[in-house]
Amino acid sequence: MRYVEQLPYEIEEENHVTITMADGVRLSARIWRPVSSGREPVPAVVECIPYRKNDLTSTRDAIHHPYIAGHGYACVRVDLRGTGESEGVLLDEYLEQEQRDAEEVLAWVAAQPWCDGNTGMTGISWGAFAALQTAARRPESLKAIVIASFTDDRYADDMHYLGGAMLSDNLAEAGTMFAYATCPPDPEVVGERWRDMWRERLEAARPWVLEWLRHPHRDAYWQHASLSEDYTRLKCPVLASSGWADGYSNAVTRLLAGADVPRKGLIGPWSHKLPHLGEPGPAIGYLQEVVRWWDHWLKGIDNGAMDGPMLRAWMQESVPPSTSYEERPGRWVGEPSWPSPHVEEVVHPLRGSAIVTAEEAEPAAVPGRTRTVRSPLSVGQFAGKWASYNAPPDLPYDQREEDGGSLVYESEPLTERVEILGSPSVGLEVAASAPVAQVTARISDVAPDGRATRVTYGVLNLTHRESDEHPRPLEPGRRYRARITLNGVAQAFPPGHRIRLSLSTSYWPLVWPAPEPALLTVHGEGAALTLPVRPTDEPDGMPQTAFGEPEGCRPPPVTRLTEPEQAWNVSRSLVDYRSALDIVKDRGLQRYEENGIEVGLRACEKYTSVADDFSSPSGRSAWTMTFSRPGWDVRVETSTVLTADAEEFRVDATLDGYEDGRRVFSRTWNETVPRNLA
């Protein structure tokens, strides 16, 4: 990244500004704005997230908020109520209260003497959710949004459920927020009342996973704040981005197709990162794009921000399987609209164990035949993370071992290059031996040497084959039609490579297994893989130089006091047949020199199972977060353990708070939730 030392506007910064809500709760904000804005008001850009502006996101914030401010904007970074130095408690994600707070923040910002009354909202992940959800409420001052790594569908395309099957990230994200929502405010900012504020957070805490388990189907809980329920609610322009390695890539194209506002989409090779910090690379000059967007929609400058393709996507080249990449080779392609007129849905029937063309599947060709699969629980150990963070390395590894427990269909070696852009799908006629069964579909790029790189995947809880709102159990042995939609991707398959489709009945630990093992029978009639093919002779639709180099402001210094630790270990015992995935994400102890806070963050996840005992899977998310400076030393420790039998989930959780090494708070939860076809 190139650090920019000189910006068009000299800026000033306020580290702690309070914004009072209607109920008296005061939210804490950090504001960067031009020095001249006191006499020449400017538009404002707001970001609302729960991740502590004073320390944990301060480095990231300092790269882009001063950069935007230095181009003539007031940037307002707000901690949600109950986080950082904001008062109140945080009880769950995306509640009605959070969106009312955001509306009040925007109204407050628009009324400030340094703001000209025009506002935008921005963010990645939670901040992007907040921006999109607030935009759907149409606050008067909000003129545009810029969002990254988001979803418009909280049920079908977030880290909770996928295709009606529960993701292990349902536990992991709950563990994350169990820790973040119980951290104390900074005494140097809020004074001696910090203990009372902290105690209020600790007393109000609960494992959020309990609520998420109580809603295994699409209901009002998930429909709230899901724009996909009614795209007409969105009236302001949106610049939306994500990465193919992220869990949120589908939302960009879905928003382009569903919304009727000025909109642009951008999908790179990145994991869950902002595009100017994108990993795997190449990262891009995203902040320059953002400034151009704000200049057009908040300042009314005719700068061509809406020129060019509606969607810009990174067409990925073939690569060997790896859990991490520094760079993904490829090129940018542009589409004038979405769905794109350049992408053709090509149907490939499945015949025997082959992926064939429609011509090869004519009646005279090899007839379809019945095949069966009952996958071991070990299928999925090399699946990687639902949403890659690229630290520790968390992308899927070589799929050959996974394919050993799967039904495999494969094309002949390709005689010419094939490029796909969009969401593949698999249509099947199946029967299962149990009332609840899953099927995971994976597409891999198979090199001539046999190595298999997963390109995309999709999951379907077959009880959701017709409806996420009203799933129905299967009648064992009965045949059903089902369609599995895989995650969107842009991928090139070179000549000499094969395209492989793999079907499995488990994908643990990425997806929590069904209540019992099921034998899945796949009937050959009508079975087909549909690929969104972008013709290779189609022009890229992009200028020679698509983006500038990444740039931003230089963040303040952070001193590393202890070394970080990262681990992603798969183990199996051939004595007791226990398998485990151990994940460690330890940032090490760091001192933020700007305010002297020393912060430690260690998160551990462990997923275990025994042989093919579907009642044995267990997941644990444990966090330790420490905050200290001379005269102040606090620690929060959380643990959430999730297990299940055929009838119910069990949650065993603990929360402990420490001051000066002495435990000052402790609480334990031991609760069960019915599975209800999950």
UniProtKB/TrEMBL annotation:
<dbReference type="InterPro" id="IPR008979">
    <property type="entry name" value="Galactose-bd-like_sf"/>
</dbReference>
<dbReference type="GO" id="GO:0016787">
    <property type="term" value="F:hydrolase activity"/>
</dbReference>
<protein>
    <submittedName>
        <fullName>Peptidase S15</fullName>
    </submittedName>
</protein>
<feature type="domain" description="Xaa-Pro dipeptidyl-peptidase C-terminal">
    <location>
        <begin position="291"/>
        <end position="553"/>
    </location>
</feature>
<keyword id="KW-0378">Hydrolase</keyword>
<dbReference type="InterPro" id="IPR013736">
    <property type="entry name" value="Xaa-Pro_dipept_C"/>
</dbReference>
<dbReference type="Pfam" id="PF08530">
    <property type="entry name" value="PepX_C"/>
</dbReference>
<dbReference type="InterPro" id="IPR000383">
    <property type="entry name" value="Xaa-Pro-like_dom"/>
</dbReference>
<dbReference type="InterPro" id="IPR005674">
    <property type="entry name" value="CocE/Ser_esterase"/>
</dbReference>
<dbReference type="Pfam" id="PF02129">
    <property type="entry name" value="Peptidase_S15"/>
</dbReference>
<dbReference type="InterPro" id="IPR050585">
    <property type="entry name" value="Xaa-Pro_dipeptidyl-ppase/CocE"/>
</dbReference>
<dbReference type="InterPro" id="IPR029058">
    <property type="entry name" value="AB_hydrolase_fold"/>
</dbReference>
